[in-house]
Specification:
Radius of gyration: 26 Å
InterPro entries: Acyl_CoA_acyltransferase, Arg-tRNA-P_Trfase_1_euk, N-end_Aminoacyl_Trfase, N-end_Aminoacyl_Trfase_C, N-end_Aminoacyl_Trfase_N
Protein name: Arginyl-tRNA--protein transferase 1
Structural class: alpha+beta
Shape: globular
Largest sheet: 9 strands, mixed
Number of helices: 12
GO molecular function, one term: arginyl-tRNA--protein transferase activity
Strand order of the largest sheet: 6-7-8-9-10-11-5-12-13
Enzyme class: transferase
Catalytic activity: an N-terminal L-alpha-aminoacyl-[protein] + L-arginyl-tRNA(Arg) = an N-terminal L-arginyl-L-aminoacyl-[protein] + tRNA(Arg) + H(+)
Amino acid sequence: MAGNKSYTIVEYFGGDDGYRCGYCKNEKGNFSHGMWSHTMTVQDYQDLIDRGWRRSGKYVYKPIMNKTCCPQYTIRCHAVKFQPSKSHKKILKKMSKFISKGELPTGQDDGEPMDSVCEEAGPREPSKVSHAEVKCPVVTDIQKEVAECPAITGVQKEVADAVPTGSEMPRNDPVSVPDGRTTATPPKPGMGADPSRPPCRKAKDLRKERRIQKEQMRQHADGVSSIVSPTPSTPTQTNQPKNLEDFINESLPDNSSHCLEVRLVPVSFEDPQFTASYEQSVALYTRYQMAIHGDDPSECSESEFRRFLCDSPLEAEYSPDGPEVGYGSFHQQYWLDGRIVAVGVIDILPTCVSSVYLYYHPEFASMSLGSYSALREIAFTRHLQKQSPKLSYYYLGFYIHSCPKMRYKGQYRPSDLLCPETYVWVPIERCLPQLENSRYARFNQDPDAGDARALKDVGRALVLYRRAVMPYAAYSRKRKSSSDETEVQQYAGLVGQDCAERILLYRA
């Protein structure tokens, strides 16, 4: 990133122990690698999620795909190419009808999962985490051993700025985004039963054509030269289906029953919008977790909310070729008539918007808010892509084919799944037949293909040891009796050679 002087600092914890699966409820069937991130750049996190990692607060984990009971495949949607399906249009119209007429559907929408857009987070903060121990006020210059590994470049004295004091989150300039309004509208009288459907629009235009033709025939019969155009618009314009923005940005009637605003707020206690709405967000989160997920009050306390949805390792960053709001972690708040009814937690990264979690008021469970917020986030991604062309994907977290209620993520097309062995993206249509036969599958059909960013030399992996940055080759010489080579090699292999040469692995 342009002007970036920060570095990622992590502690790796391995993945030997199984824990309870939130999908099939297997008590010891869920296996994953994990690491605690003290601080992380958005580019490093982008590279990590493109290798199957995902964060829950500051804890970053990667399912062991060929071992875990419910394999979790990273899924991304091509936001720019996305076209809403019939069911998506139904959800958008349902929200429009509620806002304009105040009609709240009863019951849960068929096919709408009770889960949020992104599944429940992975394992809670492991007891092995020693994040309070990293209290390096100053990191010394890189040791002279680095010179012995000339390929190690780019690590400068500014690494001291990346080391947190205790477990404090790094702070940057707050970002405030103007409010956005939901402006869908119900069909107007005289425009057909459903003007959003191309067949109805086409029938209307055909009627216009017939009227024009009759007028032309009448004028010819009267001896008048016809100058009337055959159609008011080209067939391409007439038959072009509405896109996502058309459904969202239609204007509401003046006498609408409700007003919905969507506000983007950076996750920062230095931001006035974030702090002003914090207590209301906590109360909403607690109510959601207890009603929708059946949590005990102790499991959804203010401290748990902060750890899970506010403590982010990502540092706010800005780039000349990036979006105006910058990169980092944000809350997208849905305000209905002056109160928050839903919050979508998202990360804005160099090439994508990554959905983290969604919580909402249980009173609106029938509004399909999981799918509605995903559609709004796809539209938001398309908006950011106009400012930063490479930011063109929307990540929905993990796709779990073995869990039927999580398959809805595959309905946002076109979309890809990440191959768990070669880390290349494969269209979901090619992946589904394999997943019908086996829970775990390698999607890359080239038998000779491998991991292009595989670990080549563990000695080049960077280590933060006693406030000094050094390649692992130098670290191992300093600790000749060290027995952690296997662990470091496993970590470096999981993050890939590129990340291993950028991320600082903390060693006590």
